[in-house]
Structure formats: C-alpha cells, structure tokens
Amino acid sequence: MKKNFALVLLLICVAVSYGQMDRDPNLSEGDGPVFRCRVGQLLGKTPDSVRLLVVAALPYDNLQFVRSDSGFIATFELVSSVYDSNNALVSEKIANRIAFTRTYRETNLQTRAIIHKDAYDVTPGEYRVRVVLTEKESNGQSRFETVATVNSPDSLLRVSDVFWTGNDSTSQEFDALQIVRGFFTDEAFAIARFQIASTGADSIRLSWRLLGSGPEDVFQSHELQIAPSREPTLHELRLSLQEVGAGDYTLYISAEGSGRQVVRELPFTLTLRGLPKSILQLDVAIRQLRYVATGSELRRLRDAPPLRREALFRDFWKRRDPSPGTEQNELMQEYYYRVEYANTHFSTNRHGWETDRGRIFILYGEPSDVEQHPFEINSKPYEVWYYNALNRRFVFVDYTGFGDYELVEPEWWQ
What is the mean pLDDT of residues 45-58? Predict the structure, then answer.
C-alpha cells in the first residue's frame, strides 16, 4: 500500500468515529452548547447535615455570541434539579446567565468559561441530579444527568468531596472551581480544596499522596496534624506537576482522628498540550505513525534530538489538520482514537495496533459489518470485515488459535 496517500484519503474522510472517542462522563449531551458538570458533597453547618454541590462549566468557545454595542454577548438559561429515589422533585434552581466579551477572539477561547454553582441542603439518600442548559440565541438545549448517593455523616470526622480550584482562589469558599479531567504537563501545579469537621477532641492526622497507575508509584506525599473544629474548615493542597510526566494519576487524601478514618480520591490525567489523551510516550506515538508516514518522515522523527522531536511530531500533524483554524486537530484525534481502540480490542502477544486487524481498523475505521466464524468444522477461526461504502472486504484467519488474526486477502485500492 502506498504510504501517506493523502493520509489514506484523510483516514477515509475521518469515518465519523471521532465522535465515539473516550466519552467524558462529565460532559453534557444534546444539540445545545456542550458543558461539563460535576456533582459532589460539601459539609453542612451542623454535624448531621450535607450539602449537594452542582457545578457547571461552559467554555466561551461553545457558546453562540452575537454582537452588542460594546462587544459580544451570549445568553442562556441553566436549570438544575434534584429528584429523590421516588423521582419526586426535591428542589430546583433556575438561573439566567450572560457571557460578555469585548473582542471576537475571546468568543473562541476554550480557556475562558462561565462557572455556575448551585448548592442544595439534603438528607441522606439517593438523588438524581439533572442540569439543563438552553441557549437563548439558538434555542439549543444540552442536558446532564447523574446519580448521587448521600451517606449519613459521622460527626466525629466529616470530610467533603475534593474539588480542583484555580490559582486565584483566596477566600474561604469553593471559588474559582475547575471542572476538568486533568492538566497539561507544562503547567506548574494543580490546587485541590476540601472541607474537614470533627466534634471529637483528638487532633486529626491529614495525609495526602500523588499516586501513579502502578501500586508503588508514589510521586509526592505529605502529612500534617490539624486541630479539630465543629465548623467545617477549608483545606488546600498544591500538587507540583513538574516532577511527573504524562499519564493517569490519583490524588489520595486520608484523614484520621477520634477512631475514624475517611479517604477521598480524585483521579486525573496529565497530557501533552494539544495532543490526544492516549499519547503518553511520544516515541511510541511516533512508531504508531508507520501506517501513514513515509519512511523519510519516520526516520526524521526518530533521529531527531529529544527536545526537537515533539516539535516535528506536532508539525507532521499540523500539515494535515483538516480545520487549521480550530484548537483541535480532528484527524490526529481520530487516528490515535483508532490506535487506542485497536490496543483495547485486538491485542494478543503484540499490541493491538501492530496486528493486521488493528492496522485495517486504523486505516479504514469501523467496518459496516463483521462476520465472525470462530467454530467452523473444516476451517480455522476467521472473520470477514465489510466496508460497504468503499465496496471492500477483508478476511482474517486465526491460524494459531490464540486470537492473532492474520489478513489473508490482500489489501488493494480500487
């Protein structure tokens, strides 16, 4: 097959599977502006009370702005509703919000967002939380739903959920909240905030650790003693991000006192800015280009000094960006989504992206139909993949019986 044939016809016109990428569970759905939502528990003012915090973050880039006399304006309505286990409405709050900016450039910023918070005093139980956002200009509507379980608080030691917050958070409230999945490796630090309260007389041992994906990957840790307080007190942790690389991490917090222990965990991801989440090692991502890059391009990337390699990798994809005016490179995102999918579904004694099925999936996307024949009497297990829009099919046979299917009908272009 010819290398880089217009990047395999723009990966067969991106084949629509980009929309199936690693769905963020905190993202809204619908035909309106996409927003991110987080539901968590704060401590109530009394030892037996709990507050349910609902936070929605709406980037400016997702809103439809219209010109005003002094700049650009976007208006929307946000309704948050809490239902009990019998689906009866417990409480609901309606807010009409306005986003304003003086320049058109700011209307396209993903880094600037409207943050909306609603708090509900609730009793222990299970609740369904629903957030609906309606944009006034387009009348588009987006929805987010989740289930929150509120347990009975133990007055001897209460700890709220943990939230990320911004650098300008200086008050004793949950201000400048960040509803994010993670951070970039070029950021200096991340800040987490949470509350603690105790009616006991003992001091509280508070410890936290930054954990990697392995059981012994402890990158940072700290411990201190704090005095007990019946009133909720706010605590802040600052994690240095310069000491760790791209990958999946967990902030692990433990509070112990008065014979009680409460643990809170907050997972997050560190990624290379502007690159897909699945790219954790640049050298591996470069090797995975072998289906679409020319030999000279691969050699240039592999042989480049480490500090130059990332710039060349970004330039490779920049030259193939189907929408260079946007922050996302949809083609790169799609390609590495397919690599990740192949690793998840087709790995044997090799990584999934290195197998024949992985290669075909990466180049052509999801088949229109798949025939599976695992138990034929007079033949080895085999599969037939059909791509109806391309009028093509591929046949794979598992000669070894270990799930390593090989392509037996040659790949060809019409």
Answer: 92
Report, at the CATH architecture level, how domain 154-275 is classified. Sandwich (2.60)
Q: Which residue is associated with the tokens 């409460």? A: 262
| Least confident window among 15-19, 32-36, 237-241 | 15-19
* % the chain with pLDDT above 90: 59
**Which residue ranges make up each domain of the chain?**
23-151, 154-275, 278-407
pLDDT in tens, 279-317: 877 888 999 999 999 999 999 999 988 778 888 999 999
Order across the sheet with 36-43: list the strands: 36-43, 50-59, 113-122
Q: For the chain, first and last CA: distance in Å? A: 12
Query: Using CA atoms, how far apart are residues 183 and 61, in angstroms rounded to an integer?
Result: 19
Buried b (16+ CB within 10 A) or exposed e, 112-143: ebbebebebebeeeebbbbbbbbbbeeeebbb
Do the Cβ atoms of 383 and 390 come closer than 8 Å?
no
Note the pTM of the prediction, 2 decimals: 0.73
User: Angle 47-48-50 (CA atoms, 0-180°, nearest 5)?
Assistant: 100
**Residue 19 pLDDT:** 40
Helix (H, G, I), strand (E, B) or coil at 383: strand
Nearest by Cα to 256 from 196, 338, 319: 196
Cα-based distances in Å from 155 to 49, 66, 208, 272, 376: 10, 51, 22, 43, 64
For residue 270, pLDDT over 60 is answered with yes
Query: Is residue 160 a contact partner of residue 40, using CB atoms and an 8 Å limit?
Result: yes
Domain 23-151 annotated CATH 2.60.40.10: yes
Strand, coil or helix: 45: coil
